[in-house]
Amino acid sequence: MGKSKAWFFKWLDRYRCGEVKWYTDRQRTPKQVSGKTSSEMEEIIKLTRQNLYNEDVFCGAQAIHWELTELGVPELPSLRTINRIISRNDLTHRRTGRYEPKGVPYPQFNTKVPNHRHQLDFVGPRHLRTNGEKALRFYSLNVVDLATGRCGVQPIYSKSGDAVYGAIWDIWKRLGMPRHLQVDNEFAFYGSPTHPRGMGPLIRLCLKYGIDLWFIPPSEPWRNSVVEQFNNHLQQKFLDRVVMENKEELREGSLKYEYKHNSRYRYSKLGGKTPLATLENHNGLKFLFPNPEEPIPTMSLTKPKTGRYHLIRHIRGDGVLNVFGEKFKLPPELNYEYVVATVDVEQQRLLIIHDQKQKLDFGYKLR
User: Fold this and answer.
1) What is the mean pLDDT of residues 196-219?
2) N or C: which end of the chain has fewer CB within 10 A?
């Protein structure tokens, strides 16, 4: 028959066992699997994932592993095993793809020191409906410290200079003042294109306290990706879920979410630590806070005489630099490159910097 002796006796034993379908193949899966995750551990993983999900914090395999480690659970399975368990139990969700850079060098900044650089942005307008009355419109002014991930959340009811001043002032009381503040090109941040050299409210506030204000390129919101991602979480985890009927509930809810984020959210870039736990590693640093005896700045701030603020711009094929609506012609070698346009308030000059080297210098009389 062309078969081995072992093959013959295997089927002879099958025939003698008396089973009706002795001739069919049997399952070859081992009856005992060494190293298999116990059912108790699988239930712990599922329960931990559900608890993290209910608390509206990150709940992937890495977050589950960090949580169980802090709880002192012994002999934890690998991240791959945790991923298989939550996938097998339909406890996963789709992830979005990463941004792929286009290859054009973009200015790089130090983000490893707490309060060295903050990103700031608005969410809104949103609306509160109070007992059938007219909806109350509000915005959420959000700040994120790039080094620690700490956030500041402050609701405001207009984008006027005084409202922005008050919100930023309150956030700085909790987070401290940054060395650099990064924003997009909202009118509320730089002023008005009618008066591009007038130094809007936020510019004057930052210059008064020695903070370098940075404006990202127009139409490139991913340059503020950290605060943009935080805005999405705020929408999904707080604004879209929590029912609030008045200003007091909105203010208290915003502060609760701020504390929850800073004390409970864990980030891979922080090694699995929360923002507040990361801040503890920098206890030796001294942060600058607003003077509690000093009144909140208002629109009446006088024109600063020193300091710098910066605009990052991508120069197109026409070689034109746009500074809040005012245009400057640049040499062809800067076409399709990112430049930093720095306004030196004391010298009344506009400095064009590319690849950390000054390329041009324009007179720039501020009004």
Assistant:
1) 88
2) N
What is the spatial distance between Cα 48 and Cα 41, in angstroms, rounded to a whole number?
Answer: 10
Please say if the pLDDT value at position 81 is more than 90.
Answer: no
Q: Long-range contacts for 325-334 (Cβ within 8 Å, ≥24 apart)? A: 325/193, 325/194, 325/196, 326/196, 326/197, 328/352, 328/362, 330/359, 330/360, 331/359, 331/360, 334/359
Q: Determine the structural domain holding residue 66 and report its residue range.
A: 35-93
Q: Higher model confidence: residue 32 or residue 84?
A: 84
Nearest to 227 by CA among 96, 136, 111: 111
* 3-state SS assignment for residue 164: helix
Place 133 in a pLDDT band, splitting at 50, 70 and 90. Answer: low
Q: Is residue 77 part of a domain?
A: yes
Tally the C-alpha atoms within 13 A of residue 161's C-alpha that lie toward its C-beta.
16
Q: What is the pLDDT of residue 95?
A: 45
The identity of residue 349, as a single letter, is: R
Q: Which amino acid is at 11?
A: W
pLDDT, residue 35, reads: 67
Identity (one letter) of the amino acid at 333? E
Q: Where are the beta strands (DSSP E) in the chain?
A: 117-128, 136-145, 151-156, 180-183, 212-215, 308-314, 320-323, 326-329, 338-344, 349-354, 357-363
The string of pLDDT tens digits covering residues 327-351 is 899 999 998 899 999 999 999 999 9
Render pLDDT for 156-181 as a digit per residue (tens, 0 to 9): 988 887 888 889 999 999 999 999 99
Domains contained in the chain, number: 1
**287 in any annotated domain:** no
The answer to whether residue 335 sits within a structural domain is no
DSSP of 190-213, one letter per residue? H--TTSTTS--HHHHHHHHTTPEE
Cis peptide before 125 (omega within 30 of 0): yes
pTM for this predicted structure: 0.72
Give me the amino acid identity at 276.
Answer: L
Residue at 45 is within a domain? yes
